[in-house]
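Lab intake sheet, docking and co-folding queue.

SAMPLE TYPE: protein with bound small molecule
LIGAND NAME: magnesium ion
LIGAND FORMAT: SMILES
REQUESTED OUTPUT: full 3D complex as structure tokens
PRIORITY: normal
SUBMITTED BY: R.K., bench team

The fields below were copied directly from the construct record.
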Amino acid sequence: MHKIMVSLKNISFQYHTLEGETEALKNISFDVYEGEFVGIIGPSGCGKSTLLSIISGLLKPSTGSVEVNGKIGYMLQRDHLFEWRTIWQNVILGLEIQKILTQESKRYVEELLVKYGLREFKNYYPNQLSGGMRQRTALIRTLALKPDILLLDEAFSALDYQTRLAISDEVYKILKNEQKTAIIVTHDISEAIAMCDRIVVLSKRPAYIKRIYTISLTCDDYSPIGRRKAPEFREYFNSIWKELDIHV
Amino acid sequence: MYEAASSYISKEHEKFLKKVKRKNLMIRVTQLAFLIIFFVVWEILARYKIVDPFLVSQPSRMLKTILTLNQNGTLLTHIWVTLSETIVGFTLGTLIGMFVAILLWWSDFLSKVAEPYLVVLNSLPKIALGPIFIVWMGNGEAPIITMALAISLIVTIISLQTGFKEVDEEKIKLLKTFRATKMQILTKCVLPASVPTIMSAIKINIGLSWVGVITGEFLVSKAGLGYLIVYGGQIFKLDMVMTSVLILSILSALMYVFIVYLEKKLIRWR
Ligand SMILES: Nc1ncnc2c1ncn2[C@@H]1O[C@H](COP(=O)(O)OP(=O)(O)OP(=O)(O)O)[C@@H](O)[C@H]1O
Ligand SMILES: [Mg+2]
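RESULT FIELD (auto-filled):
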């Protein structure tokens, strides 16, 4: 049996503002195993980002318990590179904050830059880079801290479709290559099926778990682009689409 | 996989660059020509008594005024007095303003408490405080610098505070995912992200410090360009007034140019 990396038990969460109380999450429970990619999908504004914030410890759940076995790296909805810092200064930001900018950690980041084709751009500023390169920079900034579990919050939503396909493919390979566990929030059903081993479908706000899909695809090429060609892909898509129950 | 921008320049691009350069040169030349024509026309009009040189002065007479004032060594003293007061007032305004704005960013409670006071102080015409400063501080440089401070400080605080608040919440959230302390959020994100705001506050601040110092010197002073202007006005020596105004505009322009230079150095990532 695989080791449990994240365990959520009966998580509920309310936002409190002067206008009132917003119930965002209701009784959410699931586990994430080592090396697993779990997708979280649900209607806009249902509480996906809130759930990630709770897993990362930025927010405390109103009720329920979170158990995390390992270091968490969090990728937000946009890349949020600091424009006034060079690519190098951006990727070492986390190390700098946690005061672990050692010779060794620098070497590791350097390796990541080389591995993912950004070494020549070390001294560039973010606005001199393409969207895909910025996204990779953000990923390296997260990986620099050697997290065991990655939380990706619509990390690719700001990119155009082609770049997005290429980058999600690349990120998938990078994360598998580095043997990470990942929780991936997305709006994109295809993206979720292509990248994830299991998919948690959330309801409208307040979000509860409608269903958890275990994705098993028959294909030879297990990259996201290869997985998209699997015969079962459409069935999963249709089923999740129905489950999401989106009316316009 | 990706190619860095090459240093090869095509003929077409060269042409384009030349055109831009030529245009920039033309702008400079025209600006300079305008200035020269302005002074020449002024001189001619005054020389042929088309305008009364007693009322509007005259470039050649201004030059003479500069020379005579310079002879007894007082001109440099006057310039130095005003310049030093402005620099001190400006520096204090910027530093104190920055400090208070940081404090208000740090504590939401403090910022809420301070809000109505800032609003009232901002709309109060600071000149009204002049007599109070004079009574409290005598007639030296202190009330003049305080005047400059009074005029620039509140604006600085308000614009910096607004700038700090506009820093992207998500950037701060990113730092929090790295478990950053509040101090780190300030130094790694809020301050560097606000450099453009800080620079524009500084630019406004310079202008306001000049206003404050000259106003202060109008009210109480024994030296300085403001003093020369008031004194010249009282004894109907418009040459002295115009000369001082001219020097004043040159000084403030120089100071502004310096700040723009500083800005270019600081904001390289644009
Ligand atoms: N700081 C806050 N204060 C009050 N309510 C909030 C706050 N943040 C989010 N909410 C509300 O909580 C709900 C869930 O927000 P959340 O950002 O988790 O949704 P999401 O599923 O990530 O949405 P999206 O798909 O648009 O990214 C939303 O209805 C939102 O309006
Ligand atoms: Mg979200």
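REVIEWER NOTE: The first helix of chain B runs from residue 11 to 47.
SIGN-OFF: pending second check by T.M.
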